[in-house]
Design brief:
By secondary structure, the protein is of the alpha/beta class. It has helices spanning 43-50, 70-73, 92-102, 107-120, 136-148, 166-181, 193-199, 217-223, 266-275, 290-299; strands at residues 3-14, 17-28, 32-36, 58-63, 66-67, 77-80, 154-158, 185-190, 202-207, 210-216, 228-233, 246-252, 255-260, 280-285. The protein folds into 2 domains: 3-220, 3-Layer(aba) Sandwich (Rossmann fold), CATH 3.40.50.300; 226-286, Alpha-Beta Plaits, CATH 3.30.70. The protein has 10 helices and 14 strands. The chain has a 6-stranded mixed sheet, sandwiched between helices.
C-alpha cells in the first residue's frame, strides 16, 4: 500500500517556542491515522502545515508522491478544524453550497452532495436555519459535512466529536468508517486517546512538539504489554501464597490481577492455580491502553502500577 502523505523532519517555531520539532511520519492510503497528544502538544500546528495554512520552518511534505502544493492540492484535502470555521449569520444550506463551490464543485453537483449528506446526518430540516442558532453539536455536524462533501482523498478531522452527544458521535463514527472503506484516508487528531483505540489502525503520539511514538495500534499495545493478566474465580480464592511464577498486583473479592515473572508463561500460572484447587472462570491478558502507554512514556510510570481498580 503506497503512502498518500509523507512528512519528513518537519519543524515550526513561534518566536523561541518549538511548536513542532523535527517530526517525521508516513500515512498509507486508505488508513485511519490517529494523531494523539495532550492539548498544546503541537498537533494542530502539524495539521496546519499539512493543509498549507502554515509554512514549515524546516522539513518537507510529500502528497500523493509529489511535493505538497497548497494551491493545487487543497481540493484533494478536507480539513475540519477544532475551532468553528462557519459564518454565523449565514443560512446553513447557503453556507454548505458556498463552501462546496469554493472546493470546485458545480452548483448542480454541490446540491446533490449536500442533499445526500443532509439526509444521511438527519439535517434535512436545517436548510434555512442560521449557524448562530445551532447548538455546538449541530454546528459540528455541519462542519463535518462541509469537510467531506467534495469527496477529498485526505480527510483531516481535528477533535471531530467535540460537542456531540453519544448518538451523533456514533453517527459520525460510522461515517468515518464508511469513508475509509471507500478508500479515503483519514487523519483523526484528538487528546482523547480512548476514542482512537476504537477508530484508528495507526497512530503517532506527539508531546511538546516531538514525536514519541509511531506505529500500528495493535503493535504498539503488544510492544508495551507487561505480562499482566486478570483471573476470575468462582468464589473468593482467599490468600494466594507468594511464588516464583507470578506477582499479585491486585486482589479483590473473586478476581486478581497478576504479573507473570520472567521465564514463565500463562499456562504455568494456570497450572499453579489449578494445583491449589482454585475454580477459575476467566483468564485473559490485560493490554495497556494508549493512555497508559502515554503516561509511561511521559512520566516513566510502570504500567503495572497504574491500575486503580480490579475492572481493568
Amino acid at each position: 500500500m503506497q503512502n498518500i502523505l509523507e512528512v519528513s523532519h518537519l519543524k515550526k517555531y513561534f518566536a523561541t517556542q518549538k511548536a513542532v520539532d523535527d517530526v517525521s511520519f508516513n500515512i498509507a492510503e486508505g488508513s485511519i491515522f490517529g494523531m494523539l497528544g495532550p492539548n498544546g502538544a503541537g498537533k494542530t500546528t502539524l495539521l496546519r502545515m499539512i493543509t498549507g495554512i502554515f509554512f514549515p520552518d524546516g522539513g518537507s511534505i510529500t502528497f500523493e508522491g509529489k511535493p505538497f502544493d497548497p494551491v493545487k492540492d487543497i481540493t484533494r484535502i478536507g480539513y475540519m478544524p477544532e475551532e468553528r470555521g462557519l459564518y454565523k449569520k449565514m443560512n446553513i444550506g447557503e453556507q454548505a453550497l458556498y463552501l462546496a463551490r469554493l472546493k470546485g464543485l458545480s452548483r448542480k453537483d454541490a446540491m446533490e452532495k449536500i442533499r445526500y449528506w443532509f439526509q444521511r446526518l438527519e439535517m434535512e430540516s436545517w436548510w434555512n436555519k442560521k449557524v448562530q442558532d445551532l447548538s455546538k453539536g449541530m454546528s459540528q455536524k455541519l462542519q463535518f459535512v462541509t469537510t467531506v462533501l467534495h469527496e477529498p482523498q485526505l480527510i483531516i478531522l481535528d477533535e471531530p466529536f467535540s460537542g456531540l452527544d453519544p448518538l451523533n458521535a456514533n453517527l459520525i463514527k460510522d461515517e468515518i468508517f464508511g469513508l475509509a472503506k471507500k478508500g479515503k484516508t483519514i487523519i483523526f487528531s484528538t487528546h482523547r486517546m480512548e476514542q482512537v483505540e476504537e477508530i484508528c489502525n495507526h497512530i503517532i503520539l506527539i508531546n511538546k512538539g516531538n514525536k514519541i511514538l509511531d506505529g500500528s495500534v495493535k503493535q504498539v499495545k503488544q510492544d508495551f504489554k507487561e505480562n499482566l493478566f486478570k483471573v476470575g474465580f468462582e468464589k473468593d480464592p482467599g490468600e494466594i501464597i507468594a511464588n516464583d511464577v507470578f506477582e499479585i498486583v491486585q486482589h479483590h473479592d473473586d478476581a486478581i490481577i497478576l504479573k507473570i515473572q520472567e521465564g514463565y508463561r500463562p499456562h504455568d500460572v494456570l497450572q499453579y492455580l489449578l494445583a491449589g484447587k482454585h475454580e477459575i472462570i476467566a483468564f485473559h491478558e490485560i493490554l495497556p491502553s494508549l493512555n497508559d502507554i502515554f503516561i509511561r512514556l511521559v512520566e516513566g510510570t510502570p504500567l503495572a502500577r497504574q491500575f486503580h481498580h480490579i475492572d481493568a
